[in-house]
Amino acid sequence: MLYEDLGQKQAIEQLVARFYERVYADHLLRPLFPSDRRQVEQAQTRFLIQLTGGPKQYESYDERMNLAMIHRLLPITEVHAIRWIELMTMTIEETISDSEAATRLIERLRIGALNVLRICDAHQNR
After folding, report:
1. Contact 63, 57 (CB under 8 A)
2. Least confident of 2-11, 47-56, 79-88
3. Enclosing domain of residue 89
4. Which positions make up the signal peptide (predicted)?
5. Is 94 left (phi over 0), alpha (psi -120 to 50) or beta?
6. Could you report the per-residue pLDDT of 62-115, keeping only the tens digit for each?
7. Which of 7, 31, 47, 110 lies 20 to 30 Å from 104 when distance is taken between CA atoms?
8. Contact at 8 Å (CB) between 24 and 7?
9. Dihedral sign (CA 114, 107, 60, 44)
10. Which is more confidently placed, 11 or 74?
11. Spatial distance between the Cα atoms of 76 and 25, rounded to a whole number of angstroms
């Protein structure tokens, strides 16, 4: 299972912390994120744990707040999605020691980022 191959919760928390150091220092992505970085990191950690096959994280949360609902009103463009993927890829390659697991995670997140972009495009073009 990918969750175990990545190093479980501790590795995901380290990945997320390093990733958001980059995001919050990035001139392109920073304006898309709220000032409460801690809350963003917690949500991303829960998401990645569940995405990779770890314990369910969202049972006590509002199911209407899925990935599409969270991002649909943000002004995300292709440039933002590409930059997000670039920063995430760099961070995964630096923090995950199992290169095969890292590659699998990058591919899952690349697909997810492109899906979010399609959702945002569809919503903005209404």
Report:
1. no
2. 47-56
3. 2-124
4. none
5. alpha
6. 544 566 666 666 778 889 999 999 999 999 999 999 999 999 999 999 998 888
7. 31
8. no
9. negative
10. 11
11. 18
How is residue 52 annotated by DSSP?
T
Q: Residue 53 belongs to a domain with what CATH number?
A: 1.10.490.10
Number of domains in the chain: 1
Query: CA–CA separation, 103 vs 89, rounded Å?
Result: 9
User: Do the beta carbons of residue 7 and residue 96 sit within 8 Å?
Assistant: yes
Burial of 73 (0-12, 13-18, 19+ CB in 10 A): exposed
Residue 124 has pLDDT above 70, yes or no: no
The model's confidence at residue 45, banded by pLDDT at 50, 70 and 90, is: very high
